[in-house]
Structure formats: structure tokens, C-alpha cells
């Protein structure tokens, strides 16, 4: 299962996208989006998100 973004908590800051070593996250229209084909569940984005908007 890939990372998921809790849209109600995401502020679109882009920190998760910067921390993702696989380029699996993009910020589109002020909300992060995860490409499940690229995500390897490393949890870097989970730890990086200042709002706790990403879960695995």
C-alpha cells in the first residue's frame, strides 16, 4: 500500500515532495498527490509532513 494524503490536513507546502527519494509526490492545486507506482513506503514523507497529512 502506498502513502496516502489526508486532503483535509494537507496545506500544499511541498516538504513531502522534496523529501521523497523516489519522486512519488507532487503538489497539484495546493494539495500533495502520491503516485502509488513510484512509492515504496519508505515513510520519509510521513516524517517530513509538518501537519501529519500523510499516512501509509
From TrEMBL:
Pfam name, any one: Fer4
Keyword field: Iron, Iron-sulfur, Metal-binding
Parts of the chain that traverse the membrane: none
Molecular function GO terms recorded: iron-sulfur cluster binding; metal ion binding
Key word Metal-binding present: yes
Annotated ranges, domain 4Fe-4S ferredoxin-type: 1-30, 32-56
Protein name (Swiss-Prot/TrEMBL): Dissimilatory sulfite reductase (Desulfoviridin), alpha/beta subunit
Organism: Desulfoscipio gibsoniae DSM 7213
Amino acid at each position: 500500500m502506498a502513502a496516502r494524503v489526508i486532503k483535509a490536513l494537507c496545506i500544499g507546502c511541498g516538504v513531502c515532495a522534496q523529501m521523497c527519494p523516489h519522486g512519488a509526490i507532487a503538489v497539484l492545486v495546493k494539495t500533495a498527490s502520491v503516485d502509488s507506482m513510484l512509492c515504496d513506503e519508505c515513510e520519509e514523507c510521513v516524517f517530513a509532513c509538518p501537519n501529519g497529512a500523510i499516512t501509509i
